[in-house]
Amino acid sequence: MHWMEVTVESSVLTSFYNAEDESNLLLPKLPTLPKNYSNTSKIFSEENSDEIIKLLGDVRLNILVLGGSSGFIELYAYGMFKIARVTGIAGTCLALCLSSDLKSLSVVTEVSSSGASEVSYFQLETNLLYSFLPEVTRMARKFTHISALLQYINLSLTCMCEAWEEILMQMDSRLTKFVQEKNTTTSVQDEFMHLLLWGKASAELQTLLMNQLTVKGLKKLGQSIESSYSSIQKLVISHLQSGSESLLYHLSELKGMASWKQKYEPLGLDAAGIEDAITAVGSFILKANELLQVIDSSMKNFKAFFRWLYVAMLRMTEDHVLPELNKMTQKDITFVAEFLTEHFNEAPDLYNRKGKYFNVERVGQYLKDEDDDLVSPPNKEGNQWYDFLQKSSHLKESPLLFPYYPRKSLHFVKRRMEKIIDQCLQKPADVIGKSMNQAICIPLYRDTRSEDSTRRLFKFPFLWNNKTSNLHYLLFTILEDSLYKMCILRRHTDISQSVSNGLIAIKFGSFTYATTEKVRRSIYSCLDAQFYDDETVTVVLKDTVGREGRDRLLVQLPLSLVYNSEDSADYQFTGTYSTRLDEQCSAIPTRTMHFEKHWRLLESMKAQYVAGNGFRKVSCVLSSNLRHVRVFEMDIDDEWELDESSDEEEAASDKPVKIKEEVLSESEAENPPSGAAALAPEIVIKVEKLDPELDS
């Protein structure tokens, strides 16, 4: 994984960075999602909305690069939307680095065969990204907006589904049970119609209403339906519609960009595909409007129906009926009669599909994430516009009209919309990915070490991009005479340019103690190394002849000493990059380094891995058993001298070690008690300051 920010500057980019996003002027601000729904909606909640805006407001292009063992590398603009997919990567991706000038992508891969693995370095040309950077940036901004809006719509729909309660299905299930248990031949619709017209219910209907539904249950059901429907209605109006309209706006802008073929066609932006996406969003908006109509109609119908049924049930129990409830006009009676006629039809075929004979509740079917058709699609009879369209062959096929799916749920239309948008935005990723050609391949070494999970997480090689000098650096080790020798390979980000001292090996010679001026000479093997900043590499060494507990060193290696301009001609690689480098060790120039400062002895710790961050001025060292971490503050003084006595003097004296915090002793960390292996490993942290003033 590698995340980079583009540093290239141009007048076109500067004007784009400084220009205000028109969508902020033309579109209303998206309402934050309510907190009382699922945790996922908190992404767009009140406290997080500023973070989303900040993310979308970051106009300078930054790209997340991902690689693995699946044979491809993917690039995500702003970490959110895929803008390139590079295929045909052999083996497992160990390291990757996209240069900040967007001219090349460095990749290190490992191909395993017959118990060993071969590690190679590749450099891919990314000239299309570099040449069309302003266009890529604009396109990526649109893609990110669209991606965020799709997520917003998805979460709005999730909130709507949560607002719809299972209690609303009570009426359907109770009526189905009533049909299964009743002995009379009259239909449920006739039973309720008889109660409406004559005010009397059959004994069976009375048992259903008084014993199963109950007056209290009916009241609760009515309140649940009103509360649930009004919540869904608000979410559709304020969130789903505003999100969809914003999506339509950004897709329309993207279509305008695609029409500028000279600029955007090379990037794979397809106007026809975007038109299909716009049409799909239009269909989704139509379906959302249809749901609003169904909710509005259902709320009126249920209100009138429950009011009438509540009064009828109070009369059955001979309770007092309030005068205002008792009033019922002819219009109210007609309204309830139409509701009974439309909603209380028995459907035996529905029983085979849904296990019920009725579908009185019509809103839930729109929120079901199913491919099935709607159980009760809206009635189109008498719809003048629909009839007009059906009779007009020209309008029926017109691209100006959004297609309508009367028998499908809102979830189905949303999934279809997402699929079409994904297809339309996938093409640039394929086109940009195919444009990235392999320009350089350097086989590095053959690795016969065991493939345990620890090495997979932390092992060499390590890639770094120097943004100032536009160079790719690669740190790796080569096994020579049972020692791991650190090598530094560097290439120019512009593949057409060469660089001097392209490959050099580092040998660590001696380390001088600051106060005693005693020199520590030994044979050192490189365990791990990472770039601390553009000028420095942090290295963990093992003294192969030192005694345990005093055999690990932390070293800051300045590159200015490695690449010394005075004698650079003496350190030129004389071999060939077409042959594996570990087979031509003698041809790799080796520079022996001697340190009087910028090093430290790591006592009582089997240090194995290191991570450095020059921006935060911190380095972390991790032990070989992954149980112990030491954190070093690196920027205490320019003179990073470490006052260490010789091994014998240090052992004899009992000087305190410069440690600010210790959670667990080294002996406990390195030698866990019996049975500890079965437990999850604890991480033990020490914080140390490298401060000369603490030296005695």
Automatic annotation (TrEMBL):
TM spans, by residue?
Answer: none
Task: Output the InterPro entries linked to this UniProt entry.
Answer: APC4 (IPR024789), APC4_C (IPR056358), APC4_long_dom (IPR024790)
Q: Which Pfam families match?
A: ANAPC4, WD40_APC4_C-half
- Swiss-Prot/TrEMBL keywords: Cell cycle, Cell division, Mitosis, Ubl conjugation pathway
**Residue ranges annotated for the Anaphase-promoting complex subunit 4 long domain, each copy included:** 121-319
Entry GO CC: anaphase-promoting complex; nuclear periphery
Residue ranges annotated for the Anaphase-promoting complex subunit 4 C-terminal half WD40 domain, each copy included:
463-633
KW Heme (keyword) present:
no
Gene Ontology biological process terms, A to Z: anaphase-promoting complex-dependent catabolic process; cell division; protein K11-linked ubiquitination
Q: What PANTHER family does this protein's entry cite?
A: ANAPHASE PROMOTING COMPLEX SUBUNIT 4 APC4 (PTHR13260), ANAPHASE-PROMOTING COMPLEX SUBUNIT 4 (PTHR13260:SF0)
User: Which named protein is this?
Assistant: Anaphase-promoting complex subunit 4
Query: To which species is this protein native?
Result: Microcebus murinus
